[in-house]
Amino acid sequence: MDYESLLADRTTGMSASAIREILKVVSQPGMISLAGGIPAPQSFPMDLIEELTAVVLKKYGALAFQYDLTEGFLPLRSALAEYLKQKGIFLTREEIIISSGSQGGLDAIGKILIGKGSKVAVEAPTYLGALQAFNPYQPEYVRLETDDDGVMPESLEEVLRCHKVKFIYLVPTFQNPTGRTLPLARRVQIAEILQRHGALLFEDDPYSDLRYQGTQIPTIKSLAPDNVIYAGTLSKIFAPGLRIGYLAAPAPIQRWLVLSKQGVDLHTSTFNQALAAEYLNGGYLKEHLPKIIDLYRPRQQAMLAALDRYFPKQFRWTRPQGGMFLWAEGPEGFDLDQAYQEAIRRNVAFVPGRYFYSHVGEGLATMRLNFTMFDETVLTKAIKILGEVLAEQLAAQAGAATREKLKIAGR
Amino acid sequence: MDYESLLADRTTGMSASAIREILKVVSQPGMISLAGGIPAPQSFPMDLIEELTAVVLKKYGALAFQYDLTEGFLPLRSALAEYLKQKGIFLTREEIIISSGSQGGLDAIGKILIGKGSKVAVEAPTYLGALQAFNPYQPEYVRLETDDDGVMPESLEEVLRCHKVKFIYLVPTFQNPTGRTLPLARRVQIAEILQRHGALLFEDDPYSDLRYQGTQIPTIKSLAPDNVIYAGTLSKIFAPGLRIGYLAAPAPIQRWLVLSKQGVDLHTSTFNQALAAEYLNGGYLKEHLPKIIDLYRPRQQAMLAALDRYFPKQFRWTRPQGGMFLWAEGPEGFDLDQAYQEAIRRNVAFVPGRYFYSHVGEGLATMRLNFTMFDETVLTKAIKILGEVLAEQLAAQAGAATREKLKIAGR
To answer: Which domain holds residue A172?
Structure first.
């Protein structure tokens, strides 16, 4: 039978995540993949699971396995209200709703706000999972310019002056893919711009607890609470397989989020929410988070040291104070595609940065490097190999350019 | 700021589930609520959770807490492929995808197939959660006529001849809300009609394992595999709080379901999927299911006996061989609204059947009665009270009709 003719208009616009396709290719044995964006399994509190399960069974019994409120399990929402205080976010538990991972929050916001042709402002480059959540609702993306400090406030100002945008999507801290963090001064400026334009920001904050140096910077939510939907997740500080994210949205938005979620999945796993509640409430997170940081900090330092040592001088890269990624950029005009292919042949993988741009043809010289999945020795080896590949490709492309020039000159 | 103006067109069509609103009202202490649609907590295998957790930790370790395939955790898909054989459904594990509850499957099908104004054929009455999943995608519903044996094949034939429908939605076994089951002969007819018209059916099958009498009837999926998306869930035979459903769709549909799910929630909880895999694989389901049936069978029998004894003669009701619901119907012209209010005052609740119709003004004399949540004594008491309320209301409405007639005659 003819299935294609049954598809909704929106569906033909869905496409496989290029990164997921890359991840499939590079998951073969022997590959050192810096392409992933996932936490190290060693970061999961595996020794706590049985204990947490016992606590949940004792404390909540069958309630933890029953249908529950769409808004989320109350003990978890209470725990999150408490936890968010340290981020300068002061909310009642009723103001927090649980999503099925932060992906669930992205989809929900897309679903209730984006109509066909609605404008959504995103950083260039931006988080690909957000685009994948938004795309089925058929938005048009408006580009926000960035520099080493993240999005530029004057670009936001310009965009809000010229376009009627539904919302702005930012990852202000240790951004995926660049690792960049918006400094406080810019956050203050952005909060003021949002308020002046009556604009809505989706502040996606999955990484801010993974800070290896420096001090915490206030969330934009804390600076302009009525203009910000704040999204967090326990995927990086507990376990991603539990799919627990959360949203703090202004009340009128939250009302629609709940209605939408009723239709999408009724509610997020009660058992997993109960485990998360006890992980936060029982002081386990406070105890476990330093272990995650102690695991990742030396990995990031090793990658940075290896980049200094092995990467060609024509490259520059970010030096984030936390998160899971570094972002490297070759000279203008350099195309990383060949280097990517060659690196795979030598069993090292990364994600070409161009996949993180909403417009085709941008970011050809950029790459995202993940440092959470391997130990220092392996990371150093991988960067050494990548450095060699890049140097060869730079030489080859320079040679080709010279030959091209000579050819033109010789005509 | 003005949030309303940011909403997508589809969002203004979302509305709170009337049933969820009813459930809030009737959850006060002392109320005997036959309004719910949830399994009894005593049906959950609580004594197995710690054992299953230990097995999962030993067998899968950190993998059960890591990001996983969008399609679902492979050991669970293998277990489900095995389990579905007894339902006459023969699939490889690759042909099954896991959804976040069956609600997740309903949303996914709505998302990939329904555009604004797309026609979807549904039974009258039908499962409300399906309408809630589909509504945001703005379908038009086409009504399928039903009788005591469920949907009438000639109505399906007529609908497919006159309308271009995207898909048909049916709950063929122990339907919610009516408890009705399509007999085999009708299933065969429906399979033939689907094949002849090249039409697609969403066969939602959450209840078929809860059979208290009689023998299993083949699924429509087993009769017309290429024309049916089959949806199941572990909510009624394991625990709903784990949010584990699954879909078996023809390959071209499955491909789009996976793309859609990537954007919606990346994947369903790995840990819960691993628990479910071990529940099925370890033979626990086989051992536990008879206990669930032994819990519910006498409850249903008690409710039927009480209906025979206490309900007014003008009422008729279904006598399903399984499931969670009975459906009762008063005489034509009777409106249950007053009876509902009066029953609440006497601390007994049910769901007025009109909420299960996609068109307003239908089913005013109908009611859904759930029998899973209370023991036999309480159920008998509740039906006795309801019977008294209904008898009073019938008398009152008959009296009012007589007075109205006399008034007209006296003019």
So the answer is: 46-285
